């Protein structure tokens, strides 16, 4: 938490891995089961230009709390 915000986000995108996924989340990302998503990184799910970088920044600036937010994600077909 003492690193610059951009560095925190870049580290998270490369190192954070999914350890638990519900079926709806898996389907959103084009997977037939949650097991297919376990171990995937945030980088696998989101591109830096998808608006999620700004969402991550807002979460950090808000003391690592998530409140009243929306994100936009695209499946394998765009």
Q: Which key phrases capture this entry?
A:
78 residues; mainly alpha; 4 helices; 40% helix
Describe the structure.
It is a single chain. The protein is an all-alpha fold. Helices cover 40% and strands 0% of the residues. The protein contains four helices and no strands. The chain has helices spanning 5-15, 23-28, 42-45, 52-61. It is globular. It starts with a helix and ends in a 17-residue tail after the last helix.
Element-level helix/strand string? HHHH
The total count of strands amounts to: 0
The unreliable regions are none
Backbone shape: globular
Q: Strand-residue fraction? A: under 5%
- Please summarize the sheet with the most strands: none
User: Whole-Å distance between the termini?
Assistant: 33 Å
Structural class: mainly alpha
Protein topology:
Elements: H1 5-15, H2 23-28, H3 42-45, H4 52-61
């Amino acid at each position: 938490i003492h690193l610059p915000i951009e560095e925190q986000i870049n580290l998270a995108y490369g190192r954070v891995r999914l350890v638990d996924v519900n079926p709806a989340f898996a389907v959103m990302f084009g997977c037939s089961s949650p097991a297919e998503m376990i171990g995937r990184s945030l980088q696998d799910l989101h591109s830096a230009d998808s608006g999620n970088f700004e969402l991550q920044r807002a979460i950090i600036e808000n003391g690592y709390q998530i409140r009243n937010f929306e994100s936009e994600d695209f499946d394998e077909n765009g």
